[in-house]
Recover the amino acids of this structure.
Protein backbone atom coordinates (compact mmCIF):
# COMPACT_ATOMS: atom_id res chain seq x y z
CA UNK A 1 0.00 0.00 0.00
CA UNK A 2 1.21 3.51 -0.65
CA UNK A 3 0.23 7.05 0.30
CA UNK A 4 -1.52 7.40 -3.06
CA UNK A 5 -3.77 4.36 -2.69
CA UNK A 6 -7.49 5.16 -2.97
CA UNK A 7 -10.60 3.28 -1.96
CA UNK A 8 -13.47 3.54 -4.44
CA UNK A 9 -16.88 4.32 -2.96
CA UNK A 10 -19.04 4.19 -6.05
CA UNK A 11 -18.99 3.50 -9.76
CA UNK A 12 -19.01 7.22 -10.61
CA UNK A 13 -15.40 7.83 -9.63
CA UNK A 14 -15.83 8.90 -6.01
CA UNK A 15 -12.99 7.59 -3.85
CA UNK A 16 -11.44 8.35 -0.46
CA UNK A 17 -7.83 8.32 0.61
CA UNK A 18 -6.70 5.10 2.33
CA UNK A 19 -6.59 7.01 5.65
CA UNK A 20 -9.02 9.81 6.48
CA UNK A 21 -8.39 12.74 8.82
CA UNK A 22 -11.10 13.20 11.46
CA UNK A 23 -11.93 16.78 12.45
CA UNK A 24 -13.80 16.00 15.67
CA UNK A 25 -10.98 17.24 17.94
CA UNK A 26 -10.20 20.43 15.99
CA UNK A 27 -11.52 22.64 18.81
CA UNK A 28 -10.38 20.39 21.69
CA UNK A 29 -6.95 21.96 22.14
CA UNK A 30 -6.09 24.95 24.34
CA UNK A 31 -6.10 27.35 21.36
CA UNK A 32 -8.75 27.87 18.70
CA UNK A 33 -6.94 27.23 15.40
CA UNK A 34 -7.05 30.16 12.98
CA UNK A 35 -7.57 29.84 9.22
CA UNK A 36 -3.81 29.64 8.53
CA UNK A 37 -3.38 26.82 11.02
CA UNK A 38 -6.26 24.86 9.45
CA UNK A 39 -4.88 25.46 5.94
CA UNK A 40 -1.51 24.10 7.16
CA UNK A 41 -3.28 21.08 8.63
CA UNK A 42 -4.99 20.40 5.28
CA UNK A 43 -1.61 20.58 3.51
CA UNK A 44 0.06 18.34 6.11
CA UNK A 45 -2.67 15.75 5.66
CA UNK A 46 -2.40 15.88 1.87
CA UNK A 47 1.40 15.44 2.09
CA UNK A 48 0.69 12.20 3.95
CA UNK A 49 -1.80 11.09 1.29
CA UNK A 50 -4.89 12.02 3.33
CA UNK A 51 -7.14 13.96 1.01
CA UNK A 52 -10.37 13.05 2.81
CA UNK A 53 -11.67 14.89 5.90
CA UNK A 54 -14.37 13.62 8.24
CA UNK A 55 -16.81 16.07 9.84
CA UNK A 56 -20.20 16.19 11.51
CA UNK A 57 -22.54 19.13 12.03
CA UNK A 58 -22.25 18.64 15.82
CA UNK A 59 -18.44 18.51 16.17
CA UNK A 60 -17.09 21.09 18.59
CA UNK A 61 -20.60 21.92 19.80
CA UNK A 62 -21.60 22.79 16.21
CA UNK A 63 -18.40 24.82 15.75
CA UNK A 64 -15.82 22.69 13.91
CA UNK A 65 -17.23 22.93 10.39
CA UNK A 66 -17.11 26.73 10.46
CA UNK A 67 -13.50 26.84 11.68
CA UNK A 68 -12.49 24.24 9.07
CA UNK A 69 -14.38 26.16 6.38
CA UNK A 70 -12.39 29.33 7.14
CA UNK A 71 -9.20 27.28 6.72
CA UNK A 72 -10.48 25.74 3.53
CA UNK A 73 -11.06 29.21 2.11
CA UNK A 74 -7.51 30.18 3.06
CA UNK A 75 -6.08 26.99 1.57
CA UNK A 76 -4.79 27.54 -1.94
CA UNK A 77 -5.64 24.12 -3.38
CA UNK A 78 -8.50 22.99 -5.59
CA UNK A 79 -11.67 21.80 -3.89
CA UNK A 80 -11.82 18.80 -6.26
CA UNK A 81 -8.53 17.50 -4.88
CA UNK A 82 -10.04 16.76 -1.48
CA UNK A 83 -13.13 14.97 -0.17
CA UNK A 84 -15.36 16.26 2.61
CA UNK A 85 -17.55 13.91 4.62
CA UNK A 86 -20.14 15.21 7.04
CA UNK A 87 -23.02 13.87 9.08
CA UNK A 88 -26.43 14.82 10.39
CA UNK A 89 -29.29 13.67 12.63
CA UNK A 90 -27.83 14.00 16.15
CA UNK A 91 -29.56 16.89 17.95
CA UNK A 92 -27.46 18.06 20.90
CA UNK A 93 -28.61 20.07 23.86
CA UNK A 94 -26.52 23.14 23.13
CA UNK A 95 -26.48 26.90 23.35
CA UNK A 96 -26.14 26.73 19.56
CA UNK A 97 -29.49 24.88 19.34
CA UNK A 98 -31.76 26.41 21.99
CA UNK A 99 -34.80 24.52 20.64
CA UNK A 100 -33.29 21.13 21.59
CA UNK A 101 -34.72 20.43 25.07
CA UNK A 102 -33.27 16.92 25.07
CA UNK A 103 -30.60 15.10 23.11
CA UNK A 104 -32.36 13.26 20.30
CA UNK A 105 -32.13 12.25 16.62
CA UNK A 106 -33.89 13.71 13.60
CA UNK A 107 -33.90 11.86 10.27
CA UNK A 108 -36.81 13.81 8.80
CA UNK A 109 -36.39 15.06 5.23
CA UNK A 110 -36.70 18.65 6.40
CA UNK A 111 -33.91 18.30 8.94
CA UNK A 112 -31.60 16.53 6.48
CA UNK A 113 -31.96 19.35 3.97
CA UNK A 114 -31.56 22.10 6.58
CA UNK A 115 -28.51 20.41 8.11
CA UNK A 116 -26.82 19.94 4.72
CA UNK A 117 -27.45 23.60 3.85
CA UNK A 118 -25.85 24.66 7.14
CA UNK A 119 -22.87 22.36 6.62
CA UNK A 120 -22.28 23.73 3.12
CA UNK A 121 -22.38 27.29 4.44
CA UNK A 122 -20.06 26.52 7.37
CA UNK A 123 -17.60 24.55 5.27
CA UNK A 124 -17.72 27.26 2.57
CA UNK A 125 -18.24 24.74 -0.20
CA UNK A 126 -20.88 23.97 -2.84
CA UNK A 127 -21.02 20.26 -2.15
CA UNK A 128 -19.95 17.57 0.28
CA UNK A 129 -18.64 14.30 -1.09
CA UNK A 130 -20.37 12.04 1.43
CA UNK A 131 -23.24 12.64 3.84
CA UNK A 132 -23.72 10.11 6.64
CA UNK A 133 -26.73 9.59 8.89
CA UNK A 134 -24.73 9.83 12.11
CA UNK A 135 -26.66 7.45 14.38
CA UNK A 136 -29.64 5.14 13.87
CA UNK A 137 -32.86 6.94 14.76
CA UNK A 138 -35.61 4.76 16.29
CA UNK A 139 -38.15 7.09 14.69
CA UNK A 140 -36.57 6.86 11.22
CA UNK A 141 -39.30 6.53 8.60
CA UNK A 142 -37.15 4.96 5.89
CA UNK A 143 -39.32 6.28 3.03
CA UNK A 144 -39.15 9.84 4.26
CA UNK A 145 -35.44 9.72 5.16
CA UNK A 146 -34.67 8.30 1.71
CA UNK A 147 -36.69 11.12 0.11
CA UNK A 148 -34.64 13.70 2.02
CA UNK A 149 -31.37 12.01 1.05
CA UNK A 150 -32.36 11.73 -2.61
CA UNK A 151 -33.29 15.42 -2.64
CA UNK A 152 -29.85 16.59 -1.46
CA UNK A 153 -28.14 14.31 -3.99
CA UNK A 154 -30.39 15.46 -6.83
CA UNK A 155 -29.71 19.09 -5.91
CA UNK A 156 -25.97 18.44 -6.34
CA UNK A 157 -25.29 19.27 -2.70
CA UNK A 158 -24.05 15.77 -1.83
CA UNK A 159 -22.27 13.25 -4.07
CA UNK A 160 -22.97 10.06 -2.09
CA UNK A 161 -24.81 8.83 0.99
CA UNK A 162 -23.72 6.56 3.82
CA UNK A 163 -24.57 5.80 7.42
CA UNK A 164 -22.76 5.54 10.73
CA UNK A 165 -23.22 3.22 13.70
CA UNK A 166 -25.94 1.29 11.83
CA UNK A 167 -26.57 -2.41 12.36
CA UNK A 168 -26.75 -4.51 9.17
CA UNK A 169 -30.57 -4.57 9.33
CA UNK A 170 -30.80 -0.80 9.83
CA UNK A 171 -28.45 -0.39 6.84
CA UNK A 172 -30.55 -2.75 4.69
CA UNK A 173 -33.78 -0.98 5.62
CA UNK A 174 -32.58 2.44 4.48
CA UNK A 175 -30.80 0.99 1.43
CA UNK A 176 -34.04 -0.71 0.34
CA UNK A 177 -35.70 2.71 -0.15
CA UNK A 178 -32.87 4.41 -2.08
CA UNK A 179 -32.29 4.35 -5.86
CA UNK A 180 -28.50 4.31 -5.29
CA UNK A 181 -26.30 2.22 -2.95
CA UNK A 182 -25.22 3.41 0.50
CA UNK A 183 -21.46 3.79 0.14
CA UNK A 184 -20.25 3.14 3.70
CA UNK A 185 -21.10 2.52 7.34
CA UNK A 186 -18.80 4.41 9.71
CA UNK A 187 -18.35 2.26 12.82
CA UNK A 188 -16.05 1.95 15.80
CA UNK A 189 -13.36 -0.73 15.49
CA UNK A 190 -9.89 -0.92 17.03
CA UNK A 191 -7.47 -3.29 18.69
CA UNK A 192 -9.42 -2.64 21.87
CA UNK A 193 -12.92 -2.64 20.33
CA UNK A 194 -13.12 -5.87 18.35
CA UNK A 195 -16.82 -6.79 18.56
CA UNK A 196 -17.58 -5.74 14.93
CA UNK A 197 -15.42 -8.69 13.86
CA UNK A 198 -18.10 -11.02 15.20
CA UNK A 199 -21.35 -9.01 15.40
CA UNK A 200 -22.01 -9.11 11.65
CA UNK A 201 -20.99 -5.50 10.88
CA UNK A 202 -17.83 -6.31 8.96
CA UNK A 203 -19.42 -9.41 7.37
CA UNK A 204 -22.15 -7.13 6.01
CA UNK A 205 -19.57 -4.74 4.56
CA UNK A 206 -17.85 -7.58 2.73
CA UNK A 207 -21.16 -9.08 1.64
CA UNK A 208 -22.27 -5.83 0.00
CA UNK A 209 -18.69 -4.82 -0.95
CA UNK A 210 -18.76 -1.37 0.67
CA UNK A 211 -15.66 -0.20 2.58
CA UNK A 212 -16.53 0.58 6.21
CA UNK A 213 -15.09 3.79 7.67
CA UNK A 214 -13.57 3.20 11.12
CA UNK A 215 -13.86 5.73 13.95
CA UNK A 216 -11.64 5.86 17.06
CA UNK A 217 -9.10 3.52 15.43
CA UNK A 218 -6.86 3.95 18.50
CA UNK A 219 -9.76 3.62 20.93
CA UNK A 220 -9.96 7.40 21.21
CA UNK A 221 -6.46 7.39 22.72
CA UNK A 222 -7.28 4.92 25.50
CA UNK A 223 -4.92 2.50 23.78
CA UNK A 224 -2.12 4.73 25.08
CA UNK A 225 -3.63 6.12 28.26
CA UNK A 226 -5.79 3.20 29.47
CA UNK A 227 -4.52 1.33 32.50
CA UNK A 228 -6.83 -1.69 32.41
CA UNK A 229 -5.63 -5.25 31.82
CA UNK A 230 -6.88 -5.17 28.22
CA UNK A 231 -5.00 -2.00 27.25
CA UNK A 232 -1.81 -3.23 28.93
CA UNK A 233 -1.98 -6.62 27.17
CA UNK A 234 -2.69 -5.02 23.81
CA UNK A 235 0.17 -2.52 24.17
CA UNK A 236 2.48 -5.45 24.97
CA UNK A 237 1.35 -7.37 21.88
CA UNK A 238 1.66 -4.28 19.67
CA UNK A 239 5.17 -3.69 21.04
CA UNK A 240 6.14 -7.29 20.32
CA UNK A 241 4.97 -6.96 16.70
CA UNK A 242 6.64 -3.56 16.45
CA UNK A 243 9.95 -5.14 17.53
CA UNK A 244 9.51 -7.84 14.87
CA UNK A 245 8.96 -5.08 12.29
CA UNK A 246 12.08 -3.17 13.28
CA UNK A 247 10.63 -0.78 15.81
CA UNK A 248 7.77 1.07 14.07
CA UNK A 249 5.47 3.11 16.32
CA UNK A 250 2.79 0.99 17.98
CA UNK A 251 0.10 3.36 16.63
CA UNK A 252 1.18 2.23 13.13
CA UNK A 253 0.84 -1.44 14.16
CA UNK A 254 -2.67 -0.71 15.50
CA UNK A 255 -3.66 0.92 12.19
CA UNK A 256 -2.00 -1.88 10.17
CA UNK A 257 -4.10 -4.34 12.18
CA UNK A 258 -7.26 -2.62 10.86
CA UNK A 259 -5.93 -2.35 7.29
CA UNK A 260 -5.29 -6.12 7.25
CA UNK A 261 -9.05 -6.83 7.33
CA UNK A 262 -10.49 -7.93 3.96
CA UNK A 263 -13.49 -5.56 4.22
CA UNK A 264 -11.01 -2.75 3.28
CA UNK A 265 -11.70 -0.59 6.35
CA UNK A 266 -10.86 3.10 6.06
CA UNK A 267 -9.47 4.33 9.42
CA UNK A 268 -10.48 7.88 10.40
CA UNK A 269 -7.51 9.21 12.36
CA UNK A 270 -8.24 11.46 15.33
CA UNK A 271 -4.90 13.07 16.16
CA UNK A 272 -4.21 16.37 14.44
CA UNK A 273 -0.49 16.31 15.25
CA UNK A 274 1.72 15.98 12.19
CA UNK A 275 4.28 13.63 13.77
CA UNK A 276 1.57 11.30 15.03
CA UNK A 277 -0.21 11.34 11.68
CA UNK A 278 3.09 10.54 9.95
CA UNK A 279 3.66 7.59 12.31
CA UNK A 280 0.19 6.24 11.59
CA UNK A 281 0.59 6.78 7.84
CA UNK A 282 3.61 4.47 7.97
CA UNK A 283 1.05 1.69 8.55
CA UNK A 284 0.43 1.86 4.78
CA UNK A 285 3.78 0.12 4.31
CA UNK A 286 3.02 -2.72 6.75
CA UNK A 287 1.20 -5.96 6.02
CA UNK A 288 0.79 -7.94 9.24
CA UNK A 289 1.27 -11.68 9.05
CA UNK A 290 -1.81 -13.71 9.90
CA UNK A 291 -0.34 -14.94 13.21
CA UNK A 292 0.78 -11.44 14.23
CA UNK A 293 -2.80 -10.29 13.62
CA UNK A 294 -4.18 -13.08 15.81
CA UNK A 295 -1.63 -12.36 18.56
CA UNK A 296 -3.03 -8.83 18.82
CA UNK A 297 -6.62 -10.11 18.73
CA UNK A 298 -5.90 -12.60 21.50
CA UNK A 299 -4.26 -9.90 23.64
CA UNK A 300 -7.42 -7.83 23.22
CA UNK A 301 -10.05 -10.47 23.92
CA UNK A 302 -7.93 -12.15 26.60
CA UNK A 303 -8.53 -15.61 25.17
CA UNK A 304 -7.37 -17.94 22.46
CA UNK A 305 -9.81 -18.23 19.57
CA UNK A 306 -12.09 -21.28 20.07
N1 LIG B 1 -19.28 8.30 13.48
C1 LIG B 1 -19.14 8.43 14.78
O1 LIG B 1 -20.05 8.17 15.57
C2 LIG B 1 -17.82 8.92 15.31
C3 LIG B 1 -17.55 8.89 16.69
C4 LIG B 1 -16.30 9.33 17.14
C5 LIG B 1 -15.35 9.80 16.20
N2 LIG B 1 -15.65 9.83 14.88
C6 LIG B 1 -14.66 10.27 13.88
O2 LIG B 1 -13.49 9.49 14.06
C7 LIG B 1 -12.37 10.35 14.19
C8 LIG B 1 -11.33 9.68 15.03
O3 LIG B 1 -11.83 9.43 16.34
P1 LIG B 1 -10.85 9.57 17.57
O4 LIG B 1 -10.35 10.96 17.67
O5 LIG B 1 -11.50 8.99 18.75
O6 LIG B 1 -9.64 8.64 17.04
P2 LIG B 1 -8.41 7.92 17.71
O7 LIG B 1 -7.31 8.04 16.68
O8 LIG B 1 -8.79 6.60 18.20
O9 LIG B 1 -8.02 8.80 18.99
C9 LIG B 1 -7.37 10.02 18.87
C10 LIG B 1 -6.91 10.42 20.26
O10 LIG B 1 -5.80 9.58 20.62
C11 LIG B 1 -4.81 10.41 21.18
N3 LIG B 1 -3.47 9.83 21.17
C12 LIG B 1 -2.75 9.62 22.28
N4 LIG B 1 -1.56 9.13 21.99
C13 LIG B 1 -1.47 9.01 20.67
C14 LIG B 1 -0.46 8.55 19.79
N5 LIG B 1 0.71 8.11 20.17
N6 LIG B 1 -0.75 8.56 18.51
C15 LIG B 1 -1.92 9.00 18.07
N7 LIG B 1 -2.92 9.46 18.87
C16 LIG B 1 -2.69 9.46 20.16
C17 LIG B 1 -4.91 11.69 20.39
O11 LIG B 1 -4.29 12.71 21.13
P3 LIG B 1 -3.73 14.02 20.37
O12 LIG B 1 -4.94 14.71 19.84
O13 LIG B 1 -3.08 14.75 21.50
O14 LIG B 1 -2.76 13.58 19.33
C18 LIG B 1 -6.42 11.85 20.30
O15 LIG B 1 -6.91 12.47 21.46
C19 LIG B 1 -12.95 11.65 14.74
O16 LIG B 1 -12.13 12.78 14.46
C20 LIG B 1 -14.25 11.73 14.00
O17 LIG B 1 -14.04 12.28 12.71
C21 LIG B 1 -16.86 9.39 14.42
Amino acid sequence: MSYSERIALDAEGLSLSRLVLGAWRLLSGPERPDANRVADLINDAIDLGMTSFDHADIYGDYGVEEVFGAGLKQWRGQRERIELITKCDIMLKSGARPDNRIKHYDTSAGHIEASVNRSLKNLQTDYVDVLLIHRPDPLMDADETARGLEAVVEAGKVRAIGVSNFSPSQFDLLASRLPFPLVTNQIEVSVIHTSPLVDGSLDHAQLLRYPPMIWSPLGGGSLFTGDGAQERQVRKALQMVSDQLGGVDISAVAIAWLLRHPARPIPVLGSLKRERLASMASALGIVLERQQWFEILQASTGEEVP
